[in-house]
Amino acid sequence: MKKLGKIWNYLSKPEVVPRIFSIFIALIFVFGLLMPHYLNPDQLYPKPVPHSQTLKTPLAPYDRGGVPLKVPAKLKSQYPQYEPDLGMITAYLTPVANWIKDKTYYFGTTIVSTPGGILDEILYYTRGMDTVLESSILLISFIIFSWMFFNKD
Amino acid sequence: MISSIIGQLFGIVPFGDIVFGFSEFSIIGFVVALIFTIVVYLTKPEKQLEAQKFRVEDKLEVVSLEELKIRRMMAIVCGIATAGAMLTYDLFDYALFLTLVGIANIGIVSAVKKDWVLNASYQYGLIAMIATLPLFGSAGMILAKTGTLSLFELPKIPTSLLFEKIIFAAGMAGETGIAPFYASKAEMFRAPGSPYILMIHLSSLLLIVRTVEILLTI
Protein backbone atom coordinates (compact mmCIF):
# COMPACT_ATOMS: atom_id res chain seq x y z
CA MET A 1 0.00 0.00 0.00
CA LYS A 2 2.85 2.36 0.80
CA LYS A 3 4.33 1.83 -2.65
CA LEU A 4 1.00 2.60 -4.32
CA GLY A 5 0.84 5.86 -2.39
CA LYS A 6 4.31 6.75 -3.63
CA ILE A 7 3.22 6.12 -7.23
CA TRP A 8 0.19 8.42 -6.80
CA ASN A 9 2.39 11.10 -5.31
CA TYR A 10 4.77 10.81 -8.25
CA LEU A 11 1.88 11.11 -10.70
CA SER A 12 0.54 14.25 -9.02
CA LYS A 13 3.48 16.41 -10.14
CA PRO A 14 2.64 18.29 -13.38
CA GLU A 15 6.18 18.01 -14.75
CA VAL A 16 6.16 14.19 -14.87
CA VAL A 17 2.84 13.96 -16.74
CA PRO A 18 4.28 14.53 -20.27
CA ARG A 19 6.86 11.82 -19.56
CA ILE A 20 4.23 9.31 -18.45
CA PHE A 21 2.03 10.17 -21.42
CA SER A 22 4.88 9.67 -23.91
CA ILE A 23 5.72 6.26 -22.39
CA PHE A 24 2.03 5.33 -22.60
CA ILE A 25 1.88 6.36 -26.28
CA ALA A 26 5.12 4.48 -27.03
CA LEU A 27 3.72 1.27 -25.49
CA ILE A 28 0.55 1.58 -27.59
CA PHE A 29 2.59 2.09 -30.76
CA VAL A 30 4.60 -1.07 -29.96
CA PHE A 31 1.27 -2.90 -29.84
CA GLY A 32 0.55 -1.38 -33.26
CA LEU A 33 3.54 -3.17 -34.79
CA LEU A 34 1.81 -6.50 -34.13
CA MET A 35 -1.44 -5.50 -35.87
CA PRO A 36 -2.07 -6.10 -39.59
CA HIS A 37 -1.99 -2.92 -41.70
CA TYR A 38 -3.04 -2.63 -45.31
CA LEU A 39 -4.11 -0.01 -47.85
CA ASN A 40 -7.57 0.15 -49.33
CA PRO A 41 -7.10 0.65 -53.10
CA ASP A 42 -10.40 2.56 -53.35
CA GLN A 43 -9.16 5.88 -51.94
CA LEU A 44 -11.22 9.06 -51.68
CA TYR A 45 -8.21 11.36 -52.22
CA PRO A 46 -6.08 9.37 -54.70
CA LYS A 47 -2.49 10.14 -55.62
CA PRO A 48 -1.00 9.25 -59.00
CA VAL A 49 1.66 6.52 -59.09
CA PRO A 50 5.03 8.10 -58.19
CA HIS A 51 6.92 9.37 -61.28
CA SER A 52 4.04 8.47 -63.60
CA GLN A 53 3.84 12.14 -64.71
CA THR A 54 7.51 13.20 -64.50
CA LEU A 55 8.87 14.70 -67.76
CA LYS A 56 5.47 14.21 -69.44
CA THR A 57 3.72 17.29 -68.07
CA PRO A 58 5.16 20.46 -66.45
CA LEU A 59 2.70 20.22 -63.54
CA ALA A 60 4.39 16.89 -62.74
CA PRO A 61 3.02 15.37 -59.53
CA TYR A 62 -0.17 17.43 -59.44
CA ASP A 63 -1.53 17.36 -62.99
CA ARG A 64 -5.27 16.69 -62.77
CA GLY A 65 -6.23 17.94 -66.22
CA GLY A 66 -9.19 20.20 -67.07
CA VAL A 67 -9.65 23.72 -68.43
CA PRO A 68 -10.44 26.53 -65.93
CA LEU A 69 -14.19 27.29 -65.75
CA LYS A 70 -14.95 25.02 -68.74
CA VAL A 71 -13.88 21.40 -68.29
CA PRO A 72 -13.74 20.02 -64.73
CA ALA A 73 -10.53 18.30 -63.63
CA LYS A 74 -10.38 14.64 -62.59
CA LEU A 75 -11.23 14.75 -58.88
CA LYS A 76 -13.03 12.40 -56.54
CA SER A 77 -15.36 13.59 -53.81
CA GLN A 78 -17.36 12.03 -51.02
CA TYR A 79 -20.53 14.03 -51.69
CA PRO A 80 -20.49 15.34 -55.31
CA GLN A 81 -24.12 16.47 -54.90
CA TYR A 82 -22.99 19.25 -52.52
CA GLU A 83 -20.17 20.42 -54.82
CA PRO A 84 -21.62 21.49 -58.17
CA ASP A 85 -18.46 23.36 -59.25
CA LEU A 86 -16.03 20.55 -58.40
CA GLY A 87 -12.75 20.73 -60.34
CA MET A 88 -13.60 23.92 -62.23
CA ILE A 89 -10.62 26.02 -61.07
CA THR A 90 -8.05 23.29 -60.40
CA ALA A 91 -6.23 23.96 -63.67
CA TYR A 92 -6.03 27.75 -63.15
CA LEU A 93 -2.52 29.25 -63.31
CA THR A 94 -1.48 32.86 -62.78
CA PRO A 95 0.24 34.58 -65.76
CA VAL A 96 3.64 34.28 -64.02
CA ALA A 97 3.06 30.59 -63.33
CA ASN A 98 2.01 30.09 -66.95
CA TRP A 99 5.23 31.72 -68.16
CA ILE A 100 7.39 29.50 -65.92
CA LYS A 101 5.41 26.43 -66.95
CA ASP A 102 6.47 26.88 -70.58
CA LYS A 103 10.16 27.05 -69.60
CA THR A 104 10.60 23.95 -67.41
CA TYR A 105 9.25 20.46 -66.82
CA TYR A 106 9.73 20.76 -63.05
CA PHE A 107 7.18 23.52 -62.46
CA GLY A 108 4.96 21.36 -60.24
CA THR A 109 7.67 21.00 -57.61
CA THR A 110 8.65 24.70 -57.44
CA ILE A 111 7.46 27.09 -54.76
CA VAL A 112 5.64 29.17 -57.43
CA SER A 113 3.18 26.37 -57.91
CA THR A 114 1.69 26.63 -54.45
CA PRO A 115 0.07 30.04 -53.81
CA GLY A 116 -2.17 30.86 -56.74
CA GLY A 117 -0.37 28.44 -59.01
CA ILE A 118 -2.17 25.14 -58.87
CA LEU A 119 -5.27 25.81 -56.78
CA ASP A 120 -5.76 22.62 -54.85
CA GLU A 121 -9.45 21.95 -54.58
CA ILE A 122 -8.94 19.36 -51.88
CA LEU A 123 -7.60 22.16 -49.70
CA TYR A 124 -9.93 24.98 -50.64
CA TYR A 125 -13.19 23.38 -51.74
CA THR A 126 -13.91 19.79 -50.80
CA ARG A 127 -12.12 20.00 -47.44
CA GLY A 128 -12.24 23.77 -46.95
CA MET A 129 -13.35 23.61 -43.31
CA ASP A 130 -10.11 21.80 -42.42
CA THR A 131 -8.05 24.64 -43.84
CA VAL A 132 -10.10 27.18 -41.87
CA LEU A 133 -9.54 25.26 -38.65
CA GLU A 134 -5.83 24.71 -39.24
CA SER A 135 -5.22 28.42 -39.74
CA SER A 136 -7.37 29.32 -36.74
CA ILE A 137 -5.30 26.98 -34.52
CA LEU A 138 -2.20 28.83 -35.70
CA LEU A 139 -3.91 32.19 -35.13
CA ILE A 140 -4.98 31.32 -31.58
CA SER A 141 -1.47 30.22 -30.66
CA PHE A 142 -0.09 33.51 -32.04
CA ILE A 143 -2.68 35.46 -30.02
CA ILE A 144 -1.61 33.67 -26.83
CA PHE A 145 2.07 34.21 -27.55
CA SER A 146 1.73 37.88 -28.46
CA TRP A 147 -0.46 38.63 -25.43
CA MET A 148 2.11 37.04 -23.13
CA PHE A 149 4.94 38.87 -24.93
CA PHE A 150 3.37 42.35 -24.71
CA ASN A 151 2.10 41.93 -21.14
CA LYS A 152 5.18 40.52 -19.46
CA ASP A 153 6.14 42.49 -16.41
CA MET B 1 -26.84 0.06 -33.16
CA ILE B 2 -25.69 3.22 -34.96
CA SER B 3 -29.09 4.80 -35.18
CA SER B 4 -29.71 4.04 -31.49
CA ILE B 5 -26.70 6.16 -30.50
CA ILE B 6 -26.95 9.22 -32.71
CA GLY B 7 -30.74 9.10 -32.92
CA GLN B 8 -32.73 10.80 -35.63
CA LEU B 9 -30.88 13.07 -38.07
CA PHE B 10 -32.73 16.39 -38.37
CA GLY B 11 -30.60 18.12 -40.96
CA ILE B 12 -27.12 18.65 -42.35
CA VAL B 13 -24.95 21.64 -43.23
CA PRO B 14 -22.55 20.59 -45.99
CA PHE B 15 -19.18 22.35 -46.34
CA GLY B 16 -17.97 20.36 -49.31
CA ASP B 17 -16.98 16.90 -48.10
CA ILE B 18 -17.17 17.97 -44.49
CA VAL B 19 -20.74 17.67 -43.33
CA PHE B 20 -22.09 19.16 -40.11
CA GLY B 21 -25.05 17.12 -38.91
CA PHE B 22 -27.80 17.92 -36.44
CA SER B 23 -28.71 14.63 -34.82
CA GLU B 24 -30.48 14.14 -31.49
CA PHE B 25 -27.12 13.42 -29.90
CA SER B 26 -25.19 16.33 -31.37
CA ILE B 27 -27.92 18.93 -30.82
CA ILE B 28 -27.79 18.34 -27.04
CA GLY B 29 -24.03 18.85 -26.90
CA PHE B 30 -24.23 21.84 -29.25
CA VAL B 31 -26.90 23.60 -27.19
CA VAL B 32 -25.10 22.91 -23.88
CA ALA B 33 -21.83 24.29 -25.27
CA LEU B 34 -23.57 27.41 -26.65
CA ILE B 35 -25.48 28.09 -23.40
CA PHE B 36 -22.27 27.93 -21.39
CA THR B 37 -20.50 30.17 -23.91
CA ILE B 38 -23.24 32.80 -23.38
CA VAL B 39 -22.96 32.35 -19.59
CA VAL B 40 -19.20 32.91 -19.81
CA TYR B 41 -19.73 36.03 -21.93
CA LEU B 42 -22.27 37.57 -19.55
CA THR B 43 -20.86 36.80 -16.11
CA LYS B 44 -18.12 38.64 -14.26
CA PRO B 45 -15.21 36.58 -12.88
CA GLU B 46 -15.13 35.48 -9.27
CA LYS B 47 -13.04 37.20 -6.61
CA GLN B 48 -11.04 35.01 -4.28
CA LEU B 49 -10.27 35.87 -0.65
CA GLU B 50 -7.06 34.08 0.28
CA ALA B 51 -5.96 33.43 3.86
CA GLN B 52 -2.30 34.30 4.33
CA LYS B 53 0.21 32.12 6.12
CA PHE B 54 1.73 33.79 9.23
CA ARG B 55 -0.16 37.04 8.56
CA VAL B 56 -3.33 38.48 10.02
CA GLU B 57 -4.98 40.17 7.04
CA ASP B 58 -6.51 38.23 4.11
CA LYS B 59 -5.61 38.91 0.49
CA LEU B 60 -8.23 39.69 -2.17
CA GLU B 61 -7.46 38.19 -5.59
CA VAL B 62 -9.07 40.21 -8.39
CA VAL B 63 -8.92 39.45 -12.12
CA SER B 64 -7.83 42.69 -13.80
CA LEU B 65 -9.70 44.06 -16.82
CA GLU B 66 -6.83 43.41 -19.22
CA GLU B 67 -6.55 39.82 -18.09
CA LEU B 68 -10.33 39.42 -18.14
CA LYS B 69 -10.57 40.44 -21.79
CA ILE B 70 -8.12 37.87 -23.18
CA ARG B 71 -9.39 35.11 -20.91
CA ARG B 72 -13.02 35.78 -21.85
CA MET B 73 -12.11 35.77 -25.53
CA MET B 74 -10.25 32.48 -25.20
CA ALA B 75 -13.16 30.97 -23.24
CA ILE B 76 -15.57 32.00 -26.01
CA VAL B 77 -13.27 30.52 -28.69
CA CYS B 78 -13.13 27.33 -26.63
CA GLY B 79 -16.94 27.26 -26.35
CA ILE B 80 -17.45 27.78 -30.09
CA ALA B 81 -14.86 25.10 -30.90
CA THR B 82 -16.61 22.70 -28.53
CA ALA B 83 -19.95 23.46 -30.17
CA GLY B 84 -18.41 22.83 -33.60
CA ALA B 85 -16.85 19.57 -32.43
CA MET B 86 -20.31 18.39 -31.39
CA LEU B 87 -21.71 18.93 -34.89
CA THR B 88 -19.00 17.79 -37.27
CA TYR B 89 -19.37 14.41 -38.97
CA ASP B 90 -15.86 14.14 -40.38
CA LEU B 91 -13.09 12.39 -38.47
CA PHE B 92 -10.17 14.64 -39.48
CA ASP B 93 -12.25 17.75 -38.87
CA TYR B 94 -13.14 16.44 -35.43
CA ALA B 95 -9.43 15.88 -34.63
CA LEU B 96 -8.76 19.50 -35.65
CA PHE B 97 -11.57 20.74 -33.39
CA LEU B 98 -10.03 18.74 -30.52
CA THR B 99 -6.68 20.44 -31.11
CA LEU B 100 -8.35 23.87 -31.27
CA VAL B 101 -10.06 23.23 -27.92
CA GLY B 102 -6.73 22.11 -26.46
CA ILE B 103 -4.90 25.27 -27.49
CA ALA B 104 -7.82 27.48 -26.35
CA ASN B 105 -7.63 25.76 -22.94
CA ILE B 106 -4.01 26.84 -22.63
CA GLY B 107 -5.07 30.34 -23.70
CA ILE B 108 -7.66 30.57 -20.92
CA VAL B 109 -5.02 30.18 -18.21
CA SER B 110 -2.10 31.79 -20.06
CA ALA B 111 -2.99 35.30 -18.84
CA VAL B 112 -2.83 34.33 -15.15
CA LYS B 113 0.31 35.80 -13.62
CA LYS B 114 1.14 32.91 -11.29
CA ASP B 115 4.15 30.66 -11.60
CA TRP B 116 2.60 27.32 -10.80
CA VAL B 117 -0.41 27.90 -13.08
CA LEU B 118 1.82 28.83 -16.01
CA ASN B 119 4.10 25.85 -15.34
CA ALA B 120 1.13 23.48 -15.25
CA SER B 121 -0.33 24.89 -18.47
CA TYR B 122 3.09 24.59 -20.13
CA GLN B 123 3.19 20.90 -19.21
CA TYR B 124 -0.37 20.50 -20.45
CA GLY B 125 0.67 22.17 -23.71
CA LEU B 126 3.43 19.58 -24.10
CA ILE B 127 0.91 16.76 -23.63
CA ALA B 128 -1.49 18.39 -26.10
CA MET B 129 1.32 18.58 -28.66
CA ILE B 130 2.33 14.94 -28.13
CA ALA B 131 -1.34 13.93 -28.35
CA THR B 132 -1.67 15.33 -31.88
CA LEU B 133 0.57 12.48 -33.13
CA PRO B 134 -1.84 9.64 -32.23
CA LEU B 135 -4.90 11.77 -33.12
CA PHE B 136 -3.90 12.68 -36.66
CA GLY B 137 -2.05 9.39 -37.08
CA SER B 138 -5.27 7.59 -36.32
CA ALA B 139 -7.25 9.74 -38.75
CA GLY B 140 -4.65 9.12 -41.46
CA MET B 141 -4.58 5.37 -40.88
CA ILE B 142 -8.37 5.19 -40.97
CA LEU B 143 -8.31 7.04 -44.31
CA ALA B 144 -5.71 4.59 -45.65
CA LYS B 145 -7.60 1.52 -44.42
CA THR B 146 -11.12 2.49 -45.45
CA GLY B 147 -10.61 5.20 -48.08
CA THR B 148 -12.98 7.69 -46.46
CA LEU B 149 -13.20 10.02 -43.46
CA SER B 150 -16.93 10.75 -43.34
CA LEU B 151 -18.59 9.41 -40.20
CA PHE B 152 -21.73 8.62 -42.20
CA GLU B 153 -19.77 6.35 -44.59
CA LEU B 154 -17.37 4.70 -42.12
CA PRO B 155 -19.94 2.42 -40.39
CA LYS B 156 -20.86 0.93 -43.80
CA ILE B 157 -17.30 -0.31 -44.42
CA PRO B 158 -16.68 -3.67 -42.73
CA THR B 159 -13.05 -3.19 -41.65
CA SER B 160 -11.54 -3.81 -38.24
CA LEU B 161 -10.27 -0.47 -36.91
CA LEU B 162 -9.23 -1.67 -33.45
CA PHE B 163 -5.73 -0.18 -33.32
CA GLU B 164 -6.83 3.10 -34.91
CA LYS B 165 -9.60 3.42 -32.34
CA ILE B 166 -7.17 2.74 -29.50
CA ILE B 167 -4.72 5.43 -30.59
CA PHE B 168 -7.57 7.89 -31.26
CA ALA B 169 -8.77 7.33 -27.69
CA ALA B 170 -5.19 7.77 -26.43
CA GLY B 171 -4.88 11.06 -28.32
CA MET B 172 -8.20 12.22 -26.92
CA ALA B 173 -7.03 11.27 -23.40
CA GLY B 174 -3.97 13.48 -23.79
CA GLU B 175 -5.81 16.37 -25.43
CA THR B 176 -8.58 16.55 -22.82
CA GLY B 177 -6.30 15.49 -19.96
CA ILE B 178 -8.29 12.68 -18.35
CA ALA B 179 -7.51 10.43 -15.41
CA PRO B 180 -3.83 9.38 -15.26
CA PHE B 181 -2.70 12.56 -17.03
CA TYR B 182 -4.89 14.83 -14.97
CA ALA B 183 -2.26 16.39 -12.71
CA SER B 184 -1.28 19.28 -15.00
CA LYS B 185 -4.91 20.17 -15.72
CA ALA B 186 -5.90 20.02 -12.05
CA GLU B 187 -3.28 22.67 -11.31
CA MET B 188 -4.76 24.81 -14.08
CA PHE B 189 -8.21 24.63 -12.47
CA ARG B 190 -6.86 26.25 -9.30
CA ALA B 191 -6.31 29.60 -11.03
CA PRO B 192 -8.76 32.36 -10.00
CA GLY B 193 -11.51 33.39 -12.43
CA SER B 194 -14.33 30.89 -12.19
CA PRO B 195 -16.49 31.01 -15.36
CA TYR B 196 -13.46 30.73 -17.65
CA ILE B 197 -12.04 27.78 -15.76
CA LEU B 198 -15.46 26.15 -16.02
CA MET B 199 -15.14 26.25 -19.81
CA ILE B 200 -11.97 24.08 -19.65
CA HIS B 201 -13.86 21.49 -17.67
CA LEU B 202 -17.03 21.53 -19.77
CA SER B 203 -15.17 21.29 -23.08
CA SER B 204 -13.22 18.20 -21.95
CA LEU B 205 -16.38 16.49 -20.70
CA LEU B 206 -18.34 17.14 -23.90
CA LEU B 207 -15.40 16.05 -26.08
CA ILE B 208 -14.99 12.79 -24.15
CA VAL B 209 -18.69 12.00 -24.66
CA ARG B 210 -18.50 12.85 -28.38
CA THR B 211 -15.35 10.74 -28.86
CA VAL B 212 -17.05 7.76 -27.25
CA GLU B 213 -19.99 8.23 -29.63
CA ILE B 214 -17.65 8.39 -32.64
CA LEU B 215 -15.62 5.36 -31.58
CA LEU B 216 -18.81 3.33 -31.07
CA THR B 217 -20.30 4.24 -34.45
CA ILE B 218 -17.28 3.75 -36.76
Helical residues, percent of chain A: 40-55%
Rg of Cα set of chain B: 19 Å
Low-pLDDT stretches of chain A:
none
Largest beta sheet: strand ordering of chain B: 1-2
Mean pLDDT of chain A: 83
**For this entry, what is the oligomeric state of its chains?**
heterodimer
Q: In total, how many domains does the architecture of chain B comprise?
A: 1
Taken from the alpha-carbon principal axes, the silhouette of chain B is elongated
Number of helices of chain A: 5
Tally of structural domains of chain A: 2
Q: What is the residue-mean pLDDT of chain B, rounded to a whole number? A: 86
Give the C-alpha Rg of chain A. 24 Å
Number of strands of chain B: 4
User: What structural category arises from helix and sheet content of chain A?
Assistant: mainly alpha
Net shape of chain A: elongated
| Helical segment count of chain B | 8
Organism (chain A): Methanocaldococcus vulcanius (strain ATCC 700851 / DSM 12094 / M7)
Transmembrane segments (chain A): 20-39, 132-150
Protein name (chain A): (NiFe)-hydrogenase-3-type complex Eha, membrane protein EhaF
Keywords (chain A): Membrane, Transmembrane, Transmembrane helix
Textual characterization of the structure:
The complex is a heterodimer of chains A (153) and B (218). Chain A has helices at residues 2-11, 17-33, 95-103, 121-126, 128-150. The model of chain A has no long low-confidence stretch (mean pLDDT 83). Chain A has 2 domains: 1-35; 78-152, no CATH class. The longest helix of chain A has 23 residues, at 128-150. By secondary structure, chain A is an all-alpha fold. Chain A is elongated and about 75 Å long. Chain B contains 8 helices and 4 strands; from the N terminus they run H-E-E-H-E-E-H-H-H-H-H-H. Chain B has a two-stranded antiparallel ribbon. Chain B is mainly alpha-helical and 218 residues long. The N and C termini of chain B lie close together (11 Å). Chain B has one domain. The relative contact order of chain B is 0.16. In chain B, a hairpin with an 8-residue loop joins strand 3 (48-50) and strand 4 (59-61). At the A-B interface, helix 2 and helix 5 of A face helix 3, helix 4, helix 5, helix 6 and helix 7 of B.
